[in-house]
TrEMBL record:
<protein>
    <recommendedName>
        <fullName>Lipoprotein</fullName>
    </recommendedName>
</protein>
Length: 138
């Protein structure tokens, strides 16, 4: 699983060169997983499949973004003889005021078994926090 995430991360980095130019009439949301060995993907905007798993681009106004976050839980958070536990989670963040031409960043991480994600504006101010929408072991 770790090799899969590392390969996916490298492919995402290579794919960044191929990202489209942001539409100035829409808001752009970059995705940034917090630690290494994790993956963060765009899934849905307002219950419709995301156009690209590497970012969100939305019209101004209110939207709900759903992401997939995959991460390993350190054995120290599980038990003395445990192996790392891989989690595959969905998180949902709502924001009422996306602005045209603005760039936002959705950053994800975890505390033990619990995933988290925060939405930042261009000034690095937290403007939204995600709610877990379900997790499973992988």
């Amino acid at each position: 699983m770790r090799a899969l995430l590392l390969t996916g991360g490298l492919l995402m980095l290579a794919g960044c060169a191929g990202l489209p130019q942001p539409d100035p009439t829409q808001a752009w949301i970059d995705l940034a997983p917090h630690p290494e060995d994790t993956a963060l993907q765009a899934l849905e905007v307002d219950d419709e499949a995301a156009v690209d798993k590497r970012y969100f681009q939305v019209s101004p106004g209110r939207h709900e973004l759903t992401v997939r976050y995959q991460f390993a839980v350190d054995p120290t958070n599980i038990g003395p003889d445990a192996e790392p536990l891989w989690r595959d989670c969905q998180l949902s963040v709502k924001f009422n005021d996306f602005n045209a031409g603005q760039r936002y960043q959705l950053q994800a991480g975890n505390t033990g078994l619990r995933p988290w994600a925060k939405l930042y504006d261009e000034q690095r101010k937290v403007v939204g926090q995600a709610q877990p929408a379900g997790c499973q072991r992988t």
